[in-house]
Specification:
CATH class of the largest domain in chain A: Alpha Beta
CATH superfamily of the largest domain in chain A: P-loop containing nucleotide triphosphate hydrolases
Helix content of chain A: 25-40%
Number of helices of chain B: 11
Radius of gyration of chain B: 19 Å
Strand order of the largest sheet of chain A: 6-7-8-3-9-10
Number of helices of chain A: 10
Largest sheet of chain B: 2 strands, antiparallel
Oligomer: heterodimer
Order of helices and strands of chain A: EEEHEEHEHHHEHEHEEHEEEHEH
Number of strands of chain A: 14
Chain lengths: 307, 259
């Protein structure tokens, strides 16, 4: 079953801006799906239409085979949204926000309170349960939004840049939490500007640009399309003046740093053999850029060239 | 799974509870000012000036204006509660909590209006208690008194909701109360009987809905009115139906809340 089916979806805003141009998209139940695109590409409009915050111009959206226009209440009860901007009442207490949101989904206080407590513990907000939302740190506010989206146990969770402005430690703990709830059966759609995040978490991906889906595939096949990868090598000692590395495109950044392009049909063993032959010791190595980032830029540039 | 009616009831109750909690949390802004203002009205208009004005409609002046002052505080507070709460929800974007949830639009409207009624009645009760320091209150027609105060609160809460939908700034939620509601209230027979006006202005006054509310409420408390009670009820109910229909139309269209 598909968790989400979008057919021929278009949106033109009242000022004439065309945000979506007849897009089609499907997300399978249980998937961890990345929806990527540059700013203004149409990601938030798509999410807005799925969650009823934006009215569509034409097309059709179904959540677990339920049409959001024909059966809005049924469809909405299956969805949870973590929006990009903080959108809670800052003057309300953290726990009140969660219990009220559960109430809007029909969960009475006796069911809502234990559920809110459970999420407050899981997301590290228990000590702040009686604080007003505006007194929380940025990271805590993000976690509060995740807790609020999950309070009614949605089957499809949509996260619009959930880790924006969150420090790396907290981001990684949020990744672990999201992976856990995905393993427990919640389908997740994620938009993010951190492509490393999408690469680490998501199994399938769609890239949207200027209102069109320019790519929709699984993460593995997309990454396999990468023609080359660039590695930065940190060397134990300075390179000799006559240093050359046949069959590899190299760039010497300084005496002890080397940048090497590795073609798709090449492998790291060949590179290290060649370096060992010349008695060059490598202390450490890293990717110059995130692999998905390179592909993303290629796809977006390509779509700009064809428009 | 809980039945649809039960879930709707829980959602309505949650929204109402949130609204009541909001105006109680900020009681120095919501409950205290009307108590102070109305105390001043009773002292100045009732005691100091009222004793020189003498009788009106066969009652002492303070007795005559008491129902109007209570009604004025009810409608002002019912209106401003909904207008400011709904606009704040838009301003802080937490209206989205309701828009993404499986709540039909009529329940969103009902929840906010019920919150407005709750504040209106709460303030009405406070002002009634204050009035007991200045006059004795007797109620002649309990059903008329209660039903008219509730209907008036509903009508003005609906007005506040529509104001909140259209408002794009905090200024715009104070323009209507300042430039329309306050003049209509002062000209709505709170402090005088419209029979004191020349005939032309008496007829003009009949276009002011507050005349009907104040007079029907005064009839409930004192047993005297410038307007026929059946006419007053009919007009207020017609206004409520029209405002409800319009507010629901705006919500269904997504005016001011959906892109």
């Amino acid at each position: 079953m598909n968790a989400l089916s979008i057919n021929n979806l278009s949106k033109t805003y009242s000022n004439g801006f065309v945000a979506l141009k007849r897009i089609d998209l499907t997300v399978k139940q249980g998937d961890f799906f990345a929806l990527l695109g540059p700013n203004g590409a149409g990601k938030s409009t798509t999410i807005g239409i799925i969650t009823s915050l934006v009215t569509k111009s034409s097309g059709d959206v179904q959540v677990f085979d339920i049409n959001i226009e024909k059966n809005p209440e049924q469809a909405k009860s299956l969805l949870g949204l973590v929006p990009q901007e903080f959108n809670f009442n800052g003057f309300e207490q953290v726990k009140h926000i969660l219990v009220a949101q559960a109430g809007f989904y029909g969960l009475a206080k006796k069911e809502a309170e234990p559920r809110a407590d459970e999420l407050l513990h899981q997301l590290g907000l228990w000590d702040k349960r009686h604080s007003t939302a505006r007194s929380l740190s940025g990271g805590m506010k993000r976690r509060l939004m995740i807790a609020r989206a999950l309070v009614h146990r949605p089957k499809l969770l949509i996260l619009d840049e959930p880790t924006a402005g969150v420090d790396i430690e907290l981001r990684r703990s949020m990744w672990a939490f999201l992976q856990k709830i995905n393993e427990q059966g919640t389908t997740i759609i994620l938009t993010t500007h951190y492509l490393e995040e999408a690469e680490n978490l998501c199994r399938n991906i769609a890239i949207i640009d200027k209102g069109l889906i320019v790519e929709n595939t699984d993460m593995k096949s997309l990454l396999n399309r990468l023609d080359k990868e660039t590695f930065v090598l940190d060397l134990a000692s300075a390179l000799p003046a006559d240093f050359k590395l046949a069959n590899f495109t190299i760039q010497q950044l300084d005496d002890t740093t080397l940048e090497v392009d590795l073609q798709r049909d090449d492998n790291l063993n060949h590179l290290f053999s060649a370096l060992t032959e010349q008695h060059i010791e490598v202390r450490s190595m890293k990717n110059k850029a995130n692999r998905l980032e390179e592909l993303f830029l290629n796809l977006v540039e390509k779509s700009e060239a064809t428009l | 799974m809980n039945s649809l009616y039960y879930r709707h009831w829980v959602a309505f109750n949650t929204l109402l509870t949130r609204e009541v909690r909001r105006f109680i949390r900020i009681w120095p802004q919501t409950l205290l000012p009307p108590a102070i203002t109305m105390t001043l009205y009773f002292i100045i208009f009732g005691n100091l000036m009222g004793s020189r004005i003498g009788e009106m409609g066969g009652f002492s002046y303070i007795d005559y204006i008491t129902p109007g002052i209570i009604m004025m505080s009810v409608i002002n507070n019912a209106y401003s509660n909904v207008a400011s709460s709904f606009y704040s929800a838009k301003f802080q974007n937490h209206i989205e909590e309701l828009l993404v949830a499986p709540i039909p639009n009529y329940l969103i409207l009902a929840g906010y209006v019920a919150g407005g009624i709750a504040r209106g009645l709460c303030v009405g009760l406070i002002v009634t208690l204050v009035s007991l320091f200045f006059t004795d209150i007797s109620i002649q027609h309990i059903f008329v008194t209660i039903s008219m105060v509730v209907l008036s609160a509903i009508m003005f809460a609906l007005g506040g909701f529509i104001n909140g939908i259209y408002a794009n700034s905090f200024d715009q939620i104070s323009i209507i109360p300042t430039f329309i509601l306050t003049p209509l209230t002062y000209l709505g027979g709170v402090f005088f009987s419209i029979t004191l006006l020349p005939e032309f202005w008496q007829n003009v006054s009949l276009f002011n809905p507050i005349i009907y509310m104040v007079n029907a409420f005064r009839y409930g408390m004192l047993g005297t009115s410038d307007i026929a009670i059946e006419v007053a009820f009919s007009i207020i109910i017609a206004c409520i139906i029209a405002l409800t229909t319009f507010a629901l139309h705006l919500l269904n269209k997504g005016t001011g809340i959906r892109n």
